């Protein structure tokens, strides 16, 4: 098992769990940077980023919940 449930979040406990977490954070930050280059307003950048963030988070939590010890 790669994650352990702690309240509402999942904590990685193996190197594969850490790899998935780092990829999730990396893809999220990279997407925000790419979107931020196209808009001068922080508000517009965050509004455009939100749907991507939700999709990335759903996939991450689905992986974490299916590979957790609980």
The total tally of domains equals 1
User: What's the SSE pattern?
Assistant: EEHH
**Dominant shape:** elongated
- What fraction strand? 5-15%
Give me the number of helical elements.
Answer: 2
Termini separation comes to 9 Å
**Strand order, sheet with most strands:** 1-2
Roughly what is the average pLDDT, rounded to an integer?
Answer: 92
Structure classification: mainly alpha
Helix content: over 70%
Low-confidence runs: none
Largest sheet: 2 strands, antiparallel
Gyration radius from CA atoms, angstroms: 14 Å
Annotation, overall tally of beta strands: 2
Q: What distinguishing features does this structure have?
A:
70 residues, 2 strands, single chain, 11% strand, two-stranded antiparallel ribbon, elongated, mainly alpha
Describe the structure.
With 70 residues, this protein is mainly alpha-helical. It has one domain (3-66). It is built from 2 helices and 2 strands; from the N terminus they run ββαα. Strands 1-2 form a two-stranded antiparallel ribbon. A hairpin with a 2-residue loop joins strand 1 (3-6) and strand 2 (9-12). Helix 1 runs antiparallel to helix 2 (42-66). The protein is elongated. The N and C termini lie close together (9 Å). The mean pLDDT is 92.
How does the SSE layout of this entry go?
Blueprint: E1 3-6, E2 9-12, H1 15-38, H2 42-66
Antiparallel strand pairs: 1-2
